[in-house]
């Protein structure tokens, strides 16, 4: 087995989980940003990951996504309407549109991405240790 493939797979997993962390942070940062209307309010985003088959992966060796293909997709979530009649973006009924970001869902996504990132680091360290041991065994003969 080529150790570079193991390193590339772990690196692709770490890149995907970092993107997931970035998107979750973006959703949390925009959670309390009001929009002038319900149509113009921020829409929460999600990262969709998809495994790439061996033949597709072989053609993508020059790219940076070996093993995992990621896509950021905006979610079609209804905005959260809050009654704030003094707000500059309040409509005629005194309602202000905020993004429909669910704090609990974002925190679960954050923890899941963090654990997956740590698992990829562990796998990369294991591959590195195996490669070092193989070099030691090869050097003794």
From TrEMBL:
Stored InterPro entries: Flg_bb/hook_C_dom, FlgC
Keywords on record: Bacterial flagellum, Cell projection, Cilium, Flagellum
Domain Flagellar basal-body/hook protein C-terminal positions: 93-136
Localization terms from the record: Bacterial flagellum basal body
Highest rank taxon of the organism: Bacteria
Pfam families registered for this protein in UniProt: Flg_bbr_C
Family from the record: Belongs to the flagella basal body rod proteins family.
Subunit structure, as described in the record: The basal body constitutes a major portion of the flagellar organelle and consists of four rings (L,P,S, and M) mounted on a central rod. The rod consists of about 26 subunits of FlgG in the distal portion, and FlgB, FlgC and FlgF are thought to build up the proximal portion of the rod with about 6 subunits each.
UniProt protein name: Flagellar basal-body rod protein FlgC
Annotated organism of origin: [Empedobacter] haloabium
């Amino acid at each position: 087995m080529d150790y570079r493939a193991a390193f590339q797979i772990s690196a692709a997993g770490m890149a995907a989980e970092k993107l997931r962390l970035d998107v979750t942070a973006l959703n949390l940062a925009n959670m309390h940003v009001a929009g002038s209307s319900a149509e113009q309010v921020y829409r929460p985003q999600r990262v969709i990951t998809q495994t790439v088959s061996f033949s597709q992966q072989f053609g993508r060796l020059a790219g940076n996504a070996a093993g995992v293909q990621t896509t950021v997709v905006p979610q079609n979530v209804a905005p959260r309407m809050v009654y704030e009649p003094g707000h500059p973006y309040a409509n005629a009924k005194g309602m202000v549109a905020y993004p429909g970001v669910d704090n609990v869902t974002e925190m679960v996504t954050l923890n899941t991405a963090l654990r997956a990132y740590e698992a990829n680091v562990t796998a990369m360290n294991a591959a590195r240790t195996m490669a070092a041991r193989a070099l030691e065994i090869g050097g003794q003969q």
